[in-house]
Amino acid sequence: MAYLVIMQIASGLSWFFRIVTFVMVLYAFLSWFVRPDNAFYRLLARFCQPILAPFRPIAARLMYRGFPFDVSYILAFFAIQVLQYLVMQVLSWILMLI
Length: 98
Fold this sequence. Notes:
Oligomer: single chain
Distance between the termini: 10 Å
Helix content: over 70%
Order of helices and strands: HHHH
Shape: elongated
């Protein structure tokens, strides 16, 4: 029973990370084509800006030194992937204990 619960939690978290990644990609692409006052874009911004905020100072320092584009999205994607990997490793470790 506990095995099935842990597997369902792992599946749900996997879907959560996929959705977060998809929303971030959508927000990045829409930033090129949609005006910032668009309602859907503002909704995505409310979700994505807190995720991107910790990486903005790093990206700003790189851009100040001549880096040509904002890398906060890349850093956020990398952090999401690392977090997903760590969470799945912890869940697999818990499954081994059961």
